[in-house]
Design brief:
The protein is an alpha/beta fold. Helices cover 33% and strands 28% of the residues. It has a six-stranded mixed beta sheet, sandwiched between helices. A four-stranded antiparallel beta sheet has the order 2-1-4-5, with helices on one face. A four-stranded antiparallel beta sheet has the order 12-13-11-14, covered by helices on one side. Helix 4 runs parallel beside helix 5. It folds into two domains: 210 residues, 3-Layer(aba) Sandwich (Rossmann fold), CATH 3.40.50; 71 residues, Alpha-Beta Plaits.
Length: 296
């Protein structure tokens, strides 16, 4: 549906995007992850036709990115971008007009979105009176008034409590199931792990790892992880090395990369005679993959 191929963008002597390529299809949530300064915002600005790339091409439904394809993309910025003194319904009607909907078509689309986002109770409530979760709902809804094929979500659950975050996740999955292709940027790795069918990890302007979560797990040389803290860390490292286990620094603890699965009792036994402050076992998740791929 949307193909980004060898995108290059520089600001002065600084290369921000370096032959960036990825593809988003129908029914897919593509997570674009990366540290600050890796090029996520620049990519979004180019996709939204706010910046022009120096090189490369973007195809949307087979057509080059241009003013003519602008209606195929909906964008939900991290900041709430609706009029707070208008009601939910008034916002939807206003943005529908901006995208050229008129008369019965505008009213029909507004009512569809009110139903889709369960806004019936709040349709005549001013946005300024809404809680964070409902603000996010109307923020996403106005980006869909023109029925785009691609939806770009920039940190869609930033600042929300757990319950509201889960509700937005459910809503995003519903949009995916309805055929919308979604580009998601987030610093919440749990969010990407729960939602994304494909993940691209961006570093210094290019994708350094891409695939499903199971595919990305292969980039970490471990089947299982052990997080261990000890005042005698040097002995921990030496023992891990003798076992053939790699290790990484993880805050005030060592992360041991184990090539096979063990019980907690078995791991403790392997470090007998070393005083351990804490120990826990966990599977390889997106957090460990991200740290492995982006570490210097």
């Amino acid at each position: 549906m949307i193909k980004v191929h060898d995108l290059v963008k520089s600001f002065g002597n600084k290369i921000v995007l370096d032959k960036l390529s990825f593809t988003i299809n129908h029914h897919v949530i593509y997570g674009l992850l990366g540290p600050n300064g890796s090029g996520k915002t620049t990519t979004i600005n180019i996709l939204c036709n706010l910046l022009e790339a120096d090189e490369g091409k973007i195809l949307i439904k087979g057509n080059p990115l241009s003013e003519k394809t602008k209606h195929l993309i909906g964008f939900v910025p991290q900041e709430i971008s609706v009029y707070h003194e208008l009601t939910c319904k008034e916002n939807l009607l206003f943005f529908s007009s901006i995208y050229g909907l008129q008369g019965s078509e505008k009213i029909k689309r507004t009512n569809e979105l009110i139903q889709m986002f369960n806004l019936n109770e709040y349709e005549n409530v001013k946005v300024t009176k809404l809680s964070g979760g409902w603000l996010r709902r109307i923020n996403i809804a106005v980006a869909l008034v023109h029925s785009p094929s691609i939806l770009i979500l920039d940190e869609p659950t930033a600042g929300l409590d757990v319950e509201a975050r889960y509700e937005i996740w459910e809503l995003i999955n519903t949009l995916k199931d309805n055929g919308v292709g979604i580009l998601l940027t987030t610093h919440q790795l749990e969010e990407a792990e729960r939602l994304c069918s494909c993940i691209g990890i961006l570093k210094k302007g290019c994708i350094v790892a891409e695939g499903s979560l199971d595919e990305l797990r292969l980039l970490v040389p471990a089947i299982q992880l052990a997080l261990i803290a000890s005042e005698d860390e040097q002995s921990l490292r030496n023992r891990a090395k003798s076992l053939g286990w790699e290790y990484r620094r993880y805050g005030d603890r060592l992360m041991l990369l184990m090539p096979e699965r063990y019980t907690l009792k078995e791991v403790v036994y392997k470090f007998e005679n070393i005083q351990l402050s804490s120990i826990s076992l966990q599977d390889v998740g997106l957090e460990q993959i991200y740290l492995e791929v982006t570490r210097e």
